[in-house]
Specification:
With 112 residues, the protein is mostly beta strands. Helices cover 0% and strands 40% of the residues. Strands 3-2-1-4 form a 4-stranded antiparallel β-sheet, with no helix packed on it. Strand 6 and strand 7 form a beta hairpin.
Length: 112
């Protein structure tokens, strides 16, 4: 689980990971087709466009918009967050089945 390691866990925090099996042979279609991030000092808003046309939106506000479309047959296999006391964090990185890293970073994010 995501927070199983002591250095990742906060005192009393519950694990936040969701584990799902990938289709056999790597085929199939991902649920998310587009990621839109609104950024400022931090990641203010993330909107996920889903295959069926609906959208899931987290947060709000921000100054600049960044949009990334996932490729056919590509799906999100992991997400990493640089935390912050507010907003959705300083940065969010999505890892995809096609070895892409989709990074959305606010101005306060650590440069690595």
């Amino acid at each position: 689980e995501c927070k199983a390691h002591p250095w990742l866990a906060e005192a009393g925090a519950e694990p936040v990971s969701v584990v799902r099996d990938l289709p056999e042979g790597g085929g199939g279609a991902g649920v998310v087709t587009r990621i839109r991030a609104t950024l400022g000092d931090a990641v203010d808003c993330i909107e996920l466009k889903l295959r069926g046309g609906s959208r899931e939106r987290y947060g709000g506000g921000g100054e600049s918009d960044t949009v990334v479309d996932l490729k056919d047959g590509e799906w999100i296999i992991g997400v990493m967050q640089e935390t912050r006391g507010q907003y959705l964090g300083n940065s969010l990185c999505f890892y995809t089945s096609q070895a892409r890293v989709l990074s959305f970073t606010g101005w306060s994010a650590q440069r690595q």
